[in-house]
Design brief:
Keywords: RNA-binding, Transcription, Transcription antitermination, Transcription regulation. By secondary structure, the protein is mainly alpha-helical. 74% of the residues lie in helices and 0% in strands. The N and C termini lie far apart (32 Å).
Length: 126
């Protein structure tokens, strides 16, 4: 599984974790069924789940005239993945994490999701 696919699957699993109160490994096993677990996918799901409170605090600090509770679940989950990558995974270039997040927003969010995600994430690199 390539990293883009792992990010897509992580988005779907983490989105489900936001709705249901499952454990990350349980949610991953259920989602993947018979597929082989991917190391990068596991790192993303477990890492975002583990640091969710800290990541949400970081996102909240960068929001202007907005609260994290108002962010749609898809965008919030994408932001969490990107912030996890930016803060906890040193081997991924910043621009790759941001571009991947914007692409996920454009694919899974609404018409303005990519722009919103770009606006929030740009505050983490400036």
């Amino acid at each position: 599984m390539n990293r883009h696919t792992a990010r897509e699957k992580a988005l779907q699993i983490l989105f489900q974790l936001d709705i249901n109160d499952n454990q990350p490994i349980e949610a991953m096993n259920h989602f993947l069924e018979n597929e082989t677990k991917d190391a990068f996918l596991t790192i993303l799901v477990e890492g975002v789940a583990k640091y969710k409170v800290e990541i949400d605090d970081l996102i909240s600090e960068k929001l202007e005239n907005w609260t994290i509770d108002r962010i749609a679940s898809v965008e919030k989950t994408i932001l969490r993945i990107a912030i996890f990558e930016l803060n906890y995974l040193e081997d991924i270039p910043t621009n790759v994490s941001i571009n991947e997040a914007i692409e996920l927003g454009n694919t899974y969010g609404d018409d303005n999701s990519g722009k919103f995600i770009n606006g929030v994430l740009s505050k983490f690199v400036n």
